[in-house]
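Researcher: Can you fold this with 6-O-phosphono-beta-D-glucopyranose in place?
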Amino acid sequence: MARSNFTSEQWRASLTESTSQFSKGDFDAASWETFAQNIYYHPADIAATEDFHKLAAFLEQIEESKPADRTYYLSTMPQLYASAIEQLGKAGMHDDSVGHRRVVIEKPFGTDLATAQSLNESIHRTFREDQIYRIDHYLGKETVQNILVLRFGNTIFEPIWNRNYVDHVQITVAEEVKVGRRGGYYDKSSVLRDMFQNHLFQLMMVTAMEAPVRYTGEFVRDEKVKVLQAVRPYHGSDFSEFGIRGQYQGYLDEEGVPKDSQTETFAALKFYIDNWRWRGVPFYLRSGKAMSCRTTQIVIQFREPPHLLFGDQKSYRPEANRLVIQIQPAEGLQVHFQSKVPDSDMRLRLSDLDFRFDSSGKELPDAYQRLLLDAMVGDPGLFARSDEVEQAWRIMDLIIAAWRSPAAPQLFSYETGMWGPSESTDWMQSQGRSWFDICPVIH
Ligand code: BG6
């Protein structure tokens, strides 16, 4: 439903055109035709309660009074989520005594802890938590789900997945794109709200969580939220020392961006997860627009061997082992390890083993395909729960407030097409570490 005045026939025609255009070459007109017979359009206004009563009657007529499951997908402006849900409630459309009633909500889920809590409270007046599906499309990406399989479907990774073997973890979501026409929205959000509070935290949670007792939505989400609960809150000088802020050159000329904007389009942040497994292991999270390439990767950087035996270490200091999990664009893994240079006197070189996730050649489903299907069949595992979202804001709110205050760390400018400001490289080096600045390792 939407406000425009289409008929169902007009709406089907418009969808036929866009679906055939965007379905990556495998559009089957006959299958589409059969499917499209079940698509209807209903003009209505979210502000009008009577429109929801009409919508309810319209749906009952389509369902011919047979019990049917319904998933309401709110593809609206975030400001309208609460009123749309209230209207569904007023029209009795949340009542699941005759079939499942689920509601799918997009990010952003609030803009800070207070707004997220108030949105949760208002949604909970109509829908129970188990009826609510909050989308974070990063969780729908195949390799993100594969992290759980890698960690908990094998025995060789888990024993070394902890502070005894891991020096630090890097999670990078680099984007080549700039803010484009989203300047108005982005300038208020910044990379912290747009990427960190949701996508980067989700990646950190699946990397750091403990094994759930069973692979069910609630058990997985219980373990994920514990990671956020263990994140050490920033205090005092952490706000400036634990992060780097950057803004790409030319950002101030983007449409909708104030000329004196201090909004960061790049951030690198260091977090500690204070639990038995991760105590003392820094998790470096970074993300930015206008960077050198589009890549999302998680690097597990292992410790150096306790005693270096081989080669002249003045001329070649062997790099420690590394596991690179590449989420996109291509999806796969790379393991870095030392091997002997053939026919040499025990000279070492860094070698790698690659695994490409889609080597079958089969196209992987888009994150949204996976998530919308899961919402329709009632599997909540890949959706954010209310406590998870609120905890993420609890961590982020403090950093956002400090970075908007007079005590904010300097905002460094960076050239487009780089890995953020050069100060970010220096910052890592000052801690005896370096960023893994390699564009996709798997092609
Ligand atoms: C969105 C952000 O949630 O994620 C965008 O609002 C960002 O700013 C996008 O570009 C990145 O998603 P993906 O799947 O392209 O990595």
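Model: Folded with 6-O-phosphono-beta-D-glucopyranose in place. DSSP finds twelve helices and twelve strands in the chain.
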